[in-house]
Amino acid sequence: MLLTLWLYAISEGIGSARHLARLCERDNVYRWICGGLSMNHHTLAEFRTGHGDKLDELMTQLLATLMHQGLVTLRQVSQDGVRVRASAGAGSFRRRATLNKCLKEAKARVRELSRQLESDPGAENKREQAAKERAARERQERLTRALAELDELEKQDKAKEPKKKSTRSKKQTTKTNEKKKAKKKERRVSTTDPEARVMKMGDGGWRPSFNLQFAQDTKENFIVGVGVTNVGSDKSQMLPMCAQVLARTGVRPREWLVDGGFVKLAAIHEMEAKGTRVYAPVPKPRDEEDDPYARKPKDTDETWRWRRRMKTESAKRKYRQRGAHAELVNADLRAWRGLQQLPVRGESKVRTVGLWMALTYNLLKWTKLVPMPA
């Protein structure tokens, strides 16, 4: 019943558990689905994010049925990423000193509320105090996670520094580092959703977001893979998505369509070596006189094969089909399924929401293509 409720709600673009709980009280369709049972937003919210593994299994079972009916063939798959606003404000990002201060205050608040809860004999007031203590503990946990995320980000920054220095002369490096130190901003992490990252959006603005990845079989545009990352770049997302599709279906796609943001020679080499032909634009060279389709020093036989392929008109025609598939799915999820802003926090829960969206989209498309029995 809860599964049906959420699938129907998402089909109507409803993503708020509180809104859905109100509809279950006053809307006849939702009341009929509930079958006379009362519903509260806590139950709805917990069900939505608490069964990601079951949703993943259901997605795999649905794809098996679609493949059996010939609606999914995996001859050609298109992948694209869509950046979705996180459930966190830009003002929630704090530097290390502020995070440590906030954590200290949060711990003191938890201790104070725990003491009040133990000493207050009033039952009604006790419930209110328990709610306050729970909220304070959740904030303390978020701040602890935020500091852990900050540690990880700083480790990544330090790992990149030697690589950058090795490509320049000592004199150039010194000057560059002095400029960078003057301009460098200390890393910040959100206290609301520590896993969210500030990304550049389609409108040119910068906002806390997650990068959701969807892969579609181009025959009927069914979604065959769902992923999420808090990295704005798509360069490292092709291999994990292809591996996911293979694990779900047992079939390796013949062709894989992606835009220029996914182009990474190591990933293309592995895809081509394992039998999947990549259709992605060849980057323009810095020197206009260089032939982008000529073999480069870093090319392997597989990446050179990709370059030669993308020079042909047939490959360019195939690549032009990418937008009609990938962008259509993204537009549907944004316009009709409520994927403008995420209602949950944390990468794991965001992926679960992505699975809900994909299941709803696939089921709606399935009912249109295959008449359901009366």
Automatic annotation (TrEMBL):
It comes from Plesiocystis pacifica SIR-1. Residues 161-187 have a biased composition (Basic residues). GO terms for biological process: DNA transposition. InterPro entries: Transposase_11. PANTHER family: TRANSPOSASE, TRANSPOSASE DDE DOMAIN-CONTAINING PROTEIN. GO terms for molecular function: DNA binding; transposase activity. Residues 111-204, 281-300 are annotated as: Disordered. It holds the Pfam family DDE_Tnp_1. This is Transposase, IS4 family protein. Residues 194-363 form the Transposase IS4-like domain. Residues 111-144, 188-200, 284-300 have a biased composition (Basic and acidic residues).
